[in-house]
Structure formats: C-alpha cells, structure tokens
Amino acid sequence: MARPFDGAGVSAFLRSLPAEPLLLGLGEARHFVEEFGELRNELFRYLVEHEGYRSFAIESDCLRGLVVDDHITTGAGALDDVMERGFSHGFGAPAAIRGLVRWMRAYNDEHEEKLRFFGFDGPLEYWAESPRQALTALYGLLDGPLPCTRETLDALLGPDERWTDEATVMDPSRSIGRSADARRLRVIADDLVALLDTQVPRLSAADRERAALYGRTAVGLLRYHDGMADASPARIARLSGLRDAMMAANLRAVAEHGPALVFSHNLHLQRNRSSMSLGDQPLEWWSAGAITAAHLGDRYAFLASALGTVAGRVPPPDTVEGVLSALPWDRCLVDARSLAEAVATSAPRVSHDFAYFPLDPAHLGLIDGLVFLKRVTRLG
Fold first, then answer.
1. What is the pTM of this model?
2. Which residue, 84, 274, 327, 347, shows the most beta carbons closer than 10 Å to its own?
3. 10-residue block means of pLDDT along the chain (380 residues)?
4. Quick one: 2-53+258-376 is in which CATH superfamily?
C-alpha cells in the first residue's frame, strides 16, 4: 500500500483514481515546512512535464494572486516585489515558493502554452479586508447604466480602516458589516454581478475571468463582514464556513483551467466536516475540499500529508505516523484507504506544536492518498 515518493509513484496514484482529477489537492499538515514545500515543487514540476497540468493554486489571497499570475504569464514586476505583494499570510516568504514562482516564469518563457497561478483564499482570515478593491475593479470593467456613481461607491466604502479593524475579531460591535452603508453596498454588489452577466459578450476572456473573480470576492467579503457583526454563539462557525465557501467558489473557477494542483492545509482540503472547540462550545462547518468534492465528484482528488519526527519529536508507535515511520523511505506515497484498514485500531497522535495537525485515523477512508515525510527539521 506504500511506495517511494517519485514520478512513478505519482503516475501510479493518478492511474488508480476513478477519473482524471480537474483539481488535485495536496494538503499540508503544518504550514511552513520547507521540506514539504520542496516536495510540492517537485510534484508540480512532474505534473506539468508528464501529466499535462498547467495551473497551480495556493491558500493565499485571490486578489493578491493576480500579481503573481501577471508576473508568471507576462514578466510584469520584479520578483522581490511580486513575492511581497502577491501573497497573504506570509506565504511568499519561504524559499521554496520563491523557487516555484521563478521556475513557472522560466517555463513560460520557453513554452507557448502558459502556466497559470491562482490564490484561492479570500482577502481575509478571521478579520477581513475592505471590499474596495474588488468592487471598484468590477465597476471599472462594466459599461453603463450602472447602479450608482463612482462617487457614491467611494462614499459608501469610506476609509478602509473602518473595514480592517482587527478588534472586530473579538468584538462584533466594532464591525460595520451591518451598517446602512454596508447593506447598500451588498445590494450594489449584487446589481454589479447581475450586470456582468448581461455584458459578457463585450468582454475579453481575460476580463470576464477577472470580473467574475472581483464579483464573487466583493459579494463574499460583504457577506463575511456581515457575519463579523454577528454577536451570536454561532459567529465563529459561520465565519469559518463562509471563508471555506469562498475558497470553494475560487477552486471551481480554477477547475476551469484544470488539471490543477491545489496546495493548502489539510483542514481546508479534507472531505470530512471540520470541527473545533471554542471554550466549551463545539463548532462545525464544511471545508472547501468537502464543498468542492460535492460539486466535482470524482474530478476532485485529495492527497493529504503526515509528518513523522517533527523537530526531534518521534511519533508514538501506536499512531498512524508511528506505523508509517517504520517504512524504509524518507518520503513515501500511501494508499490511504488500504491504510485505513491496516491501522483501524491506531490512536490519534497528540501534537505539542499548535501549528501541526496530526492525522485523524477515523478519516483515512475519505482521503485518496497520503504523502508521508519521515523526518522534518526546517520549520517556519
């Protein structure tokens, strides 16, 4: 059920799937593991050169990702500036992602069929950006009659600081998401998206793609800001669900350019229902992977990851990670469903690193394959 992680193993895994995936999700058990970033780059290069993949998507701001895509496809911008402005959540900092962007740009210099780069997260986490960029960019791509003047749109948006106040994470009363201005902007955003549908014939393919991105991002951000003003106990679960739903909508757009490799945390790509505890309150919502799988069926595949020894901490032998650590390879590819039968009585690993989420043996049956790294030492 396991083999070394190499090109032959990747091809065998893809041939074992019931259908060729439009989206192949590669999940990481912990952000900023350099060894895993290097494995991701190796996988994407192989997929491009041997399996016809032409798109890469990462758990980063979808609007910032346009900066990276422009650089990769046209050469616009200096690499240092692209890495700083083109990523959110610090994802532009690791050397491995810089190496991937450089490789994708070099590939496009030498090939007529271009690689594409996508961020698929919204411009948010638990706080959120202003909807200004998305709304004004969509407005600028449309022709009249428009639902309001540019001056009215600017006045309703007001200063960005009132949208991006991070204190709203803990204090819903600080949010303007249910203010009169925000409510009117939600109507305007809906009108602009509807207007876009009526003007599709006059837009180029590139403008249609960007306008659709701006539209769903504007609507999603305004919906998220409304959720931030919610003072009910369901607030965090609702926000988590809205974020993953925005991710899923972006992934469906990426699928139109498939087959694509999608890189994100296991928790966003998994098929099972996500859960966490907020004090004594259990919270649940569906992940982007679960939503995407519901839409794409067999055209979505999920490669989860697991780590063995992390910064000197060896996994107990009765955990899945402990069992896999006995394999002879430093990196391997595992048939997750066969593994589920073999480790049915394994205990979940307990993580002492808040950023590392070990495998839950109960969910192995919902994973198509598993990438295992026996030992990692370079953590960000």
1. 0.96
2. 274
3. 95 96 97 96 98 98 98 98 97 97 98 97 93 98 95 98 94 97 98 97 97 98 98 93 98 96 97 85 93 98 96 93 95 93 87 88 94 93
4. EreA-like (biosynthetic domain) (3.40.1660.10)
